[in-house]
Amino acid sequence: MLRRLVVSAAVTVAAAPLAAASATAAPKPTPKPVVGSPGAPALGDSLFPTLGNGGYDALHYNFTLTFGKTPSSPVTGTETLTAKATQALSSFSLDLGPAPLIGAVTVNGKSAATTRTAEKLIITPSQVLPAGSEFTVKISGLSFTATPLSDDPSSVAYIAAPSGSFTAPQPAYMHHVLPVNDHPLDKATYYFKLTTPAGTMAVASGKLSSKERLKNGSTVYAYAQRQPMASELIQLASGAYKMVDQGVGSGVRLRNIIAKGAGSVADDLLADNAKQMAWVVKHLGAYPFDVYGVIVTDEDPQFALETQTLTMIPGAWFENPDDAAWVAPTMVHELVHQWYGDSVSPKDWADIWVSEGHATWYEARYADDEGYFEDYSGFPTFNDFAQRIYELGDKYRANYGPVGRPLSGSDDDLFSPQSYYGGFLVLYALRQEIGARAFAKLEREYVTRYKGQTKGTADFVALASKIAGRDLSAFLNAWIYGLTTPPMPGHPDWAVEPVDVTLAATSRASATTLVSDPLPLPRR
Known about the structure:
Layout: H1 2-25, E1 37-38, E2 56-66, E3 75-85, E4 89-95, E5 105-107, E6 110-111, E7 113-116, E8 120-124, E9 134-144, E10 159-160, E11 164-166, E12 188-196, E13 201-204, E14 207-213, E15 219-229, E16 236-239, E17 241-249, E18 252-259, H2 267-270, H3 273-284, E19 291-292, E20 294-297, E21 311-314, H4 324-337, E22 345-346, H5 352-370, H6 373-377, H7 382-391, H8 393-400, H9 411-414, H10 417-434, H11 436-449, E23 454-455, H12 457-468, H13 473-481, H14 511-514
Parallel strand pairs: 1-4, 2-12, 18-19, 18-20, 20-21, 22-23
Antiparallel strand pairs: 2-3, 3-9, 4-8, 5-6, 5-9, 7-8, 10-11, 11-16, 12-15, 13-16, 14-15, 17-18
Helix pairs in contact: 3-4, 4-5, 5-10, 10-11, 11-12
């Protein structure tokens, strides 16, 4: 053993200089630095081509905000975004309008360079973010202000009303308040920690998770939106509001938030939340979120909006109990959006017909079931209503474009009667074609299968074909994208009214010229 050890030692000693020489001659390779590129500055929406941002997936937003004493006082705070890089990122962007102020920005705790353009906040981290890595962005010094309604469409982003502030940012205006990836393609979960002065309350989308009264009289509210939400559906409000708890209905906590100046709110209409929830659940399945209710405002932007878990409806709409024939169906319309539009969001804004068509369909169905369809629509029956929409079909297409191709992203085109009534008519035709049973199965299956996701027209057509057991793409594409209205299955006697103008995106007649007998105005 000793000899072998000696020999081994000799070999080792002799080899040592060679090893040293080898180490000197061939140093260990240095890892190559990660090479990144900027994230895409938009997500390719057909109607909003500059909206959204690529290169990452927003996972969670955390906002800590402090409200002032008046609706128009500046709101200050911080934002923390957790995201996942989908490519190696040298820089990335968030949508951010010109009005909000920001301070320092860090990425993973290290200072990051920023550049602002008219609608973007471009962030350059201190080092490249590897593909697949999660990273955290913190934005300090955030400040924004609610403004009165004006002719500027973005004024609905964050509205200063007499009693308090509230949001109505659809389709693309939340980035005029907060730095976000402002397209439904990139939904995320949210947490809001809101501090509000004595005598006021703050509310946000999601479930109230805590409430703490501070020694100075302020109150800190925390809301958690655990299910994915598109930024255009954020409700954020503060002021002289009160909460009315309605208990639990269909397994869902129901509460309303009512502005002090909302007037003589029709309490019996608001009490219908539980009844309406049960009706929609019967048709579409379990409610997709934790809580639901209505925020009743004392400012009227001339529409209601399905902000997630807390629909915004102007208080003026509730002042006359005789208006129940259209207010109650409108409440159902916005409730249905929690499934179609909120839980399952549009992949492209041209897909808005899927959301608005379904909300209009069930709005009308509810009025019919409740026995006041004629008071609601002005037509004796549901079929008479559908026939009148059919008669106006080519005029709607000439004025606003095909159902699935709005002429522009303007409010007039995006929220035109075509998105609502044209979408309704697509569903009516589909039900006629595949039968009531298959149609009912499709309606539930779509929002169940794609819960929390972002889907588009092609996804709806594909699922309809699967459930029907045959390819419906030609049938549905004619209804959705055709320049003229197809024959209605089961109603060979129905005829469209002639159009005396040429369909053209650049030259079109006014709605009053083409549609001399308008249906009830859609209210979103």
